[in-house]
Specification:
This protein has 93 residues and is mainly alpha-helical. Helix content is 82%, strand content 0%. α1 packs across α3 (73-92). The longest helix is centred in the N-terminal third of the chain and has 40 residues, at 3-42.
Length: 93
């Protein structure tokens, strides 16, 4: 087998893997953005609502049960904060 042939096959696989990583990363950023948006909407558009802490605790508990430990209250607050920060920046720009 010629090295050139193998390198071509290797390049096809590496290119495909990179596309998968990029697509996955975009999809997860989009999901986190939408989670943050939903949280803010549920709080009536406020960054921090009176009942927001209880909402995040309840949401976190259910999401950890369904999707694993990556959905702590702290992480949910990050999704919310990032959306608020980006939204503020977009209004200024």
């Amino acid at each position: 087998m010629e090295q050139k042939f193998y390198d071509e096959i290797k390049n096809i696989l590496l290119t495909a893997r990179n596309k998968v990583y990029q697509t996955t990363n975009f999809a997860m950023v989009e999901a986190y953005w939408n989670i943050g948006k939903s949280i803010i909407e549920e709080q009536g558009g406020n960054e921090k609502a009176e009942y927001g802490t209880g909402l995040l605790k309840e949401l976190s508990k259910q999401m950890i049960q369904d999707f694993g430990k990556g959905f702590t209250v702290a992480n949910l607050k990050k999704y919310e904060a990032v959306l608020f920060d980006i939204s503020k920046w977009l209004r200024i720009a």
